[in-house]
Known about the structure:
By secondary structure, the chain is mainly alpha-helical. The chain has a single domain (about 1-285), classed as UbiA prenyltransferase (Tetracycline Repressor, domain 2, Orthogonal Bundle), CATH 1.10.357. Helices cover about 80% and strands about 0% of the residues. It has 13 helices and no strands. It has helices at about 1-15, 15-35, 40-65, 65-70, 90-110, 110-130, 140-160, 165-185, 190-195, 205-225, 225-230, 235-255, 260-285. α2 crosses α7 (about 140-160), α3 packs parallel to α6 and α5 (about 90-110) runs antiparallel to α6 (about 110-130). The chain starts with a helix and ends in a 5-residue tail after the last helix.
Amino acid sequence: MRKPLIMLQNYSELVKIKLSLLVWLSSLTGFFLADGRSFHFLLFLSFSLGSLFVIGGANVFNEIIEIKEDAVMSRTSRRPLPSGRMEVAEAFIFGVCLALSGLLILAFTVNLLTGFLASLALVLYVFVYTPSKKIGSWCIAAGAVPGALPAMMGPAAVQDHISPLAWLLFGIVFFWQFPHFFAIAWLSKEDYEKAGFRIFPVPQNERLIAYEILICSCVLVGVSPLLTFTHVTGASYFIGSLILSSLLLIYALRFWLKLSKPLAGQLMRAALVYLPFLFVLMVLDKVGH
């Protein structure tokens, strides 16, 4: 009994289960918001499985590529691959099976547009974002695109075109990733430097990170409530999104005023609360729900 549980733990760590579920939640929220009064259960089931498999597969490939870097960082050294609990070949086969089956499910049981968006997210995440982390801080923008594409996939699965709703959800998740990831990077700055990740600009310009966080948090205050103006959500979401976005902005402003790890930790937790709560508000206050 113990061995299957250990294997399950290894595989869940390999796909970065918490991150995968958060990204998956963005895609499911988009699907629900775009779906009409009659819920399309079979389409939802296919989309759910396909998107989850692709997201998990992308994270597996990311961990395979970054084995050496993960091994020298304290926060990642106990992952299955750098710790030696799993062989690279096993992880690669698992990743291929996940990604390929997910893409096939999306392309042939949902629609080709959703399959294309999933393929684009996979390629950008694995082959652009992952290697760019060792080149420069622009990697955050490179990673924010594939990170936000699953939110766009949800409406595309229902509507079979890229609608204003898809773009709005993409924008919310895209700009949210800057305060979220930069806060994590600040907390793990020494680890990232040991691994050779060039997340930060030269030391004398580190405050540029705080400016980016502040600007993106400001954008969220303006972008998040737009779902109400496009008649996707109601007044309750409008008020709730303003409150959540303003709170995130306050944490970003505090970090901008004084760069410190404690404030980065508070910002990270605020960002982690912000997005799922925003999705819940969207679902609860969907117009016509």
